[in-house]
Amino acid sequence: MIDIKNISTHCTRSEFVGKAVLDTIGLVISGIDDTLLKEMNIGTKYHCLGLFSSRTGAAGQLTALDDAVKATNTEVLSIELPRDTKGWGGHGNYIVLGGTDVSDVRHAISMALELTNKNAGEVYISESGHLEFAYSASAGQVLNKAFGVPMGEAFGFMAGSPAAIGLVMADTAMKSASLSIAKYMTPDKGTSHSNEVILAVAGDASAAKTAVLNARQIGLELLIAMGSYPETPGYHIYKKILTFASGIHIIINGKFKKQIFGIIGNGTSSWMVMNNTNL
Asked: How many Å is the Cα radius of gyration of the chain?
């Protein structure tokens, strides 16, 4: 029998890119076996694959990957949402990217891991259930493939468990702003029979943001009414990001700009209101 204590927690395998909150791992296969690639049903265009998988959450990771794919010469090949959340009511995720250059693929996965640590601030988990929210001002190919959001339109996402909370959140969101429904998912429709109602919306950036914030407010009130306060897995990492980023000056188009991070509510939604302001 192998002595597992002889295996270091600091992996040095070339396939290992890194890890993030919500039990997320990022891996790269530089040259996938041809026979296995055919069985994966993702096409045979790319032999260099990036693998991204989490036990908990999906929208935050997909938003992170959407930004990573936009910034690299990579393509999303498959998206699956397994029944997971480590025994709770929702999903995990399993996403495969492809690229011709292993450095591009590795960079995309590395970037997505970093962004997942930030986006995890919008996952709330309690003894009674969980909530998840996400927003992007401009959807790319990952969000288009996952939720059918038109490329370039703003994207808003909300998921609530137990499922009844999710439906009230969805109703609140649609009543609060003029948006189109990109995808509506329930325990028996579009999910792996998870105990959630999920709504993805598309449209104007301001409307999408308003819808997500209103859904979050009522969702938190209903979840907390069940008797316990939720935790936000990425909060401690958020605090480090905010402290570091508050003093960063960026040169854009020859002008100095300061990246301002606004904090909404309990301080876990800075990514939703990030904007550039001229100094």
From this structure: 19
